[in-house]
Fold:
Amino acid sequence: MAANPDFTLSGASTAVPGLESTFADEFGDLTVPWKGAQAPDPALLVLNEQLAAELRLDAAVLRSEEGVGVLSGSAVPDRAAPVAMAYAGHQFGGYAPLLGDGRALLLGELADQGGRRVDLHLKGSGPTPFSRGGDGFAVVGPMLREYLVSEAMYALGIPTTRALSVVATGAHVPRNGLEPGAVLARIAASHLRVGTFEFAVRRGEVLPRLAEYAIGRHYPELTELPATGDGNRYLRFFEAVVEAQASLVAKWMLTGFVHGVMNTDNTTISGETIDYGPCAFLDAFDPAAVFSSIDHGGRYAFGNQPAVLKWNLARFAETLLPLMAPTPDDAITAATGVLDTFDERYDAHYTTGIAAKIGVAGTHIDRALVDDLLSLMEESGADWTGTFRALAEELRGHSASLDGLLPRTAIGPWLERWNEVLAQQGRGPAATADAMDEVNPLYIPRNHQVDAALRAATDGDLSPFTTLLEVVTHPFGRRDEWSDYAGPAPRQFTESFQTFCGT
Ligand code: AMP
Ligand code: MG
Structure:
């Protein structure tokens, strides 16, 4: 692929030492050397000092002019080989043969404190050969949104890419009128996606190399397995991704998270949540909930997420067929055998998780008890997050919270059944309530709060964002001064609330 004509290492910076570029070095056929646009007046809006420390980066240096230069994409770190990555993807079910980083760069890889290799990636750093019709830029609101929601997900214990910083570039980008430009620095186990494999499979010999790289990086325990035969490492690799993604989507479903754009280019090989464009959290429980302005058919509705994920994994399996067995028939049989385990794996993760949410320990739970609660919640439009905390309060003898969510006539008989199950379990109500509060968040990024914080930030006031970030990164322990953050959005807000891609 053609390189950026003015690609030079001018402005090389030592602010991010130790960057490696194993992916760029090994996959010239999947990358284009590139560099970011010059930010006219870069200013750091938020820096994740805790994450910087985990990456052994010096926060003071990152805050310096040199550091902000790197985090804005204007300066290239010393010895780095930044690239735009190529990938394909199924978007809303239709195949797009060439997507790629249209406004992003892989700066390189860092080793974290535990010795794990992670990607340092910039989003909003300017046009690339993959920009297609897009301008290559991003703006303050959506980049702070990704920062906030990904850090909230991390605090909730959900595998996710993380946010290192957001820098305002000083440029004005056309969106709703002109909006302030911004660049997000993102840390990920890697940026390999199902879409990376969909791109590679059409380019022959790169596919086995890509599979080896992905196995070595994400599932190193499989590297010693044989390349052929029944339990070959490619089949086990597929199985490992199926397991990681089944576990991930179960966590989304337990938290009321709607990703919003589950295209195969947004489905990672690592099992981390990636890309927080049109995502949202449920207030009222509704399997049909859709927030994205472009998801007219509800393909990525809350309740469809496990099925869509399985569909995406089928697209992934197709890319690996040539490696899985010598004949297409055998490969399809083997891949189908693994794909068919998705539902069971998902159910196991979901069931264990939902049992814990209602205070039932272990993996055995009467599914009817769960399903009946969900039906009652759906009928009443009960707040997903609030209901589980209210059930714990009910065990403590405080009925007001639950009364505000579900009519007592409807929930009463269910509570009796639930209390019987809890009594059999033998753990006292107080201990059960405490255990529930450890898995049921009180504070999630509520859509109206996120919206208000991002509007203020776009207008230059970061304080609502800073407070909200503090709240959502401490989701479980109640604090009196945060009472405004625990409730759902006013109904009129939710009725018109929409989210957007590529902003
Ligand atoms: P997403 O929906 O954010 O995962 O993006 C899907 C594709 O659109 C990716 O190839 C992005 O790089 C590209 N894209 C999104 N926004 C822009 C933009 N403003 N300029 C160029 N490419 C973009
Ligand atoms: Mg994406």
Q: What stands out?
A: The chain has four domains: 22-188, 194-198+206-350, 363-439, 447-496.
